[in-house]
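Recall from the previous lesson that a structure prediction takes nothing but the amino acid sequence as input. Here we apply that procedure to IMS import disulfide relay-system CHCH-CHCH-like Cx9C domain-containing protein from Acorus calamus. The sequence below is the only information supplied.
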Amino acid sequence: MGRKAGLIRINPKKFAPAGKPCSKELVSFLNCLALNHNNDEKCVQQRNAMYACVEAQKTQAKKNPYKTLNYHLQRLSKGIK
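The prediction returns the following tokens.
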């Protein structure tokens, strides 16, 4: 129920929810574009909602960097257990 990368075991389900944080806003913006023949002037509300979500994701600080995959891979590459 996971993949092995060297000495560590990776559970892909653990990292899945963080991969799609703004999917609802993106889908609503793309649907609006499709309905309006790619005229983004008519989709200002959806575009602003998507941009606000993306900006919020950029500025959101990670709660615990020790649980990230990159942290463990860096420790593994340095030989620290």
